[in-house]
């Protein structure tokens, strides 16, 4: 990609702080949470701080990693795509 042209839109009900594209698979991971001023009043079991995985082409969510206690500020895939 040589431009900043919009290619895909992945919809969530929470703000997104970071996104990464897998180097091996057709996956995108999004990390975020909720508005910073609301963090101290949120129960972590509600699922507001999950890392969410989407299919790169079809834009469908297919998985989540739960258990983060606050907003996710950065996500990444290892360059070899295996870790």
UniProtKB/TrEMBL annotation:
The keyword Repeat applies. One of its GO terms (cellular component) is eukaryotic translation initiation factor 3 complex, eIF3m. Keywords: Repeat, WD repeat. InterPro entries: Quinoprotein_ADH-like_sf, WD40/YVTN_repeat-like_dom_sf. GO terms for molecular function: RNA binding; translation initiation factor activity. It comes from the Eukaryota. Signal peptide: none annotated. One of its GO terms (biological process) is cytoplasmic translational initiation. PANTHER family: EUKARYOTIC TRANSLATION INITIATION FACTOR 3 SUBUNIT I. This is Uncharacterized protein. It comes from Biomphalaria glabrata (Bloodfluke planorb).
């Amino acid at each position: 990609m040589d431009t900043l042209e919009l290619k895909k839109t992945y919809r969530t009900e929470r703000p997104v702080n970071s996104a990464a594209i897998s180097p091996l698979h057709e996956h995108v991971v999004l990390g975020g949470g909720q508005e910073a001023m609301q963090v101290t009043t949120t129960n972590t079991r509600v699922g507001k701080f999950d890392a969410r995985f989407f299919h790169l082409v079809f834009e469908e969510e297919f998985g989540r990693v739960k258990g983060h206690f606050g907003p996710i500020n950065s996500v990444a895939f290892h360059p070899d795509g295996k870790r």
